[in-house]
Amino acid sequence: MRVVVFIVIFFISIPYLGLGQTDTVRVLDEVEVISSPWEQFVPSHKKYTADSVIKSLVPYQNLASRLNYIAPVNIRSYGVTGLTTISQRGFGGGRTKILWHGIDLQSLSNGSLDIGQIPAFFFDNMTLYSGGQSAVAGSAAIGGILNLEPLDAKTRGDNQSQLFLRAASFGSLTAGGKTELSKGKHSGDIKIFYQKSDNDYPFINTYKSGAPKERLAHANRESGSVSADYSFQLSDKIKLSSSYWGLFSDSQLPPLASKTSGSQEEQNDRYHRGAVNFSVKDQQYDLRFTSGVDLQKILYLNNATDLESETTSFRWQNNLLYTYYLDNWTFNFTGKANREEVTFNNEGYPRIKERLTGELSGFIRYEPKAGTIFTAGINQSMAEDISIPTTPSLSVSHQLGSVLTVHGEFSRVFRIPTFNDLYWQGAGAKGNPDLRPESGYNGGIGINFKTSPAKYFNSSLSLDLYSTTLNDQIVWAPDSEGDWTPMNLQKVWSRGIELESVSSIRYGESEFLLRLNYQMTRASLMKDNTISDEYTGTENQLFYTPEHIFGANLSVKYRRWLLAIFNQFTGDQYTTLDNNERWKLEGWFLSDVNLAYIFSVGKNKISVSGEVKNIFDTEYEVRRERIMPGRNYGISINLLLNH
C-alpha cells in the first residue's frame, strides 16, 4: 500500500510545478489526435500513443516492445520467439481487441495475435485504449482495444521516405523502409520490414543443479512484412482507399530451461490482409463502408516426433458506419456482417468449420455545452448457434474550469468462444460446442488535469479507477473421460488504478519530455467450479498478473543530440492459484538508453544512434523457465528524406 501512496503523490505533484506559467507553450512534437468510433462515443476511456521521440529513435521495435514503452500494460511472452500477447487490466491477450481498418485481427482459432511479430514501424499512429468497450467494438473488447491504423488518419500533404538499418547483439539485423507519396487527388505509401535474430544469448540456468551458465539454443527468428496503401479523393466529399498487409515469421521454439535435451519445435506463420474503404464526409453526416479479408496460416512442427499441425483461418468482414450530426447531438449506426472459416489439419486430414457473425449497434452523443459530453449506446452481436447478450454502454465527461475534466462510464462486456474452444479435436483434447459467451460488467471514473498553457512548461495528469467482472470465463480442464476440454468455469473480478503524467520543459536550446505511467491491478478468481474455495476470493492474485507496473521515460534534446532513457518496473508474478511464494517470479526493473546525433543534409534528416538495452543486466522471466536476454547493444542509422 505504501508503494501505491508514494506513486500517487509523486504523479499528482508534477503538474502543479507549472501552474504559475501563463505564456504561450512550445513543447516537443505532439502526437496527432485521431478520431475513432470508440473514442467519439466512449470519450472517458484512457488512451496511450507514442510520442515523436519513440517513433524516431526506435522504428525497429515490434508492437510488444513499443507498448512497453508507452503504456503500463503486462506483455505476456513465452520467450523471445514464443507467443507474445497483451494483458490489460488483468485480462489475457484474447480479451484485448486488435483492429486494423476496423477489421478484427485476433486468430479465429485461438483468439490471440502474436504482437512480437508485428513491426511497430508500420503503425506509428497506433493507439491503445484501456477499458471494456464491447458496446462499440464487439466481442473480446474487455481489457481494451489496440487500434493499429485509425480509419480517420490524415493523408500527408508532402512526399517523404524513410530508411533505417540496425545491427545488434545476438546476431540481430533489422532493416526497413517506407515511402509516402501524394499528388493531387492521389496518395499512398509502401512499407517494407525485415528482421533476423539468432537469439543465442547467455544466461544463468537456475533450473539446473549448480546453476550453470548456458547459451540459449534453437531460438532463431526470421520475419518480414510489406504493406501498401492507396487513396483517391474522388471529390471534396467522397474518398476511396485500399490497403494490403502481408507478413511471414519463421520461429524456432527453444526448450524450457529445465530440459536436458534440445528442442526441435518450430512455428511458421503467414498472414495476408486486405481492405477497401468507401467514405463520404459531409457537414451533416459521415458514411463509411469497409470490406476486408484476413487470411492466417499457422504451421507447428516438432521434428523430434514428426508432429505437424496446420491451422488456416479466413475471415471476410464488412462494416457500415453512418454518423449524423444535428446541433449538439451526434447519432451513429453501425452494422457488421462477417463470414468466418477455420480449417484444422492436425490429424492427417482437414476439418473445416465455418460460421456467420454480425453486429448491430447504435450510439448517441450529446454535448449540451462546451466541455460536457454524454454518450449512450447499445450493441447486439450475433453468431450462429451462440446466444450473445445485449450490450449497453453509458458515459459522461465534464470539464470543471479550464484545467480539470472528470469522467465516468458503465458498460457490459462479452467474448464469444473461439473455434478451438468449440471444435478442436486431437492430442487428448476436444472442443465444447455448448459453451456460453463470457459476459460481465465494466465501470470506471477518472480525472484529467492539464496546466494552463505556459512558455517553458506544460504538464498533464490523468487518474482512472476501474472495476470489471467477468462471468463464465472459459477455461480448459479435464472432463469425466480425462480429455482436456473448455468449460465455463470461472468468475474473475479485476479492479485497480491507472495513472499517467506527461511533462515538457523548454529552456534555451534544450527540450525535456518526461512521461510517467503506473497501473495497479488486483485481479481475483472469485469462483471456479473445479477447485477448492481456498484458491478463490479477493486475497489471491491471478497467476501471471503483476499487481504493479510502473514506467518512466525521459528524453532530452540539445541542439543535434537526443538522449532517451526508457524505464519499466514489473512487479512480482505468482504462477500458482494459491500464490505460493516458492514458485513466484520476482519482479524486475529494465532500463534502456538511446543516444542519437541528428543532422540535416538539405531538407533531409539523418540520425545515427547507439543503444544499450537492459543496462543493469537484470535476470528476469516473463514466463517460468523462459529466461529473457540480459544486457545487449545496438547501433542504427535512420534517414528521413523529403522529396
Automatic annotation (TrEMBL):
Membrane topology per the record? Multi-pass membrane protein
Span of domain TonB-dependent receptor plug: 56-145
Compartments it resides in: Cell outer membrane
UniProt cross-references to Pfam families, sorted A to Z = Plug (PF07715), TonB_dep_Rec_b-barrel (PF00593)
Q: What is this protein called?
A: TonB-dependent receptor
The record places domain TonB-dependent receptor-like beta-barrel at 193-615
InterPro entries, per database record: Beta-barrel_TonB, Beta-barrel_TonB_sf, Plug_dom, Plug_dom_sf, TonB-dep_rcpt-like
User: What are the alphabetically sorted keywords of the record?
Assistant: Cell outer membrane, Membrane, Receptor, Signal, TonB box, Transmembrane, Transmembrane beta strand, Transport
Keyword Signal: yes or no? Answer: yes
Family (UniProt): Belongs to the TonB-dependent receptor family.
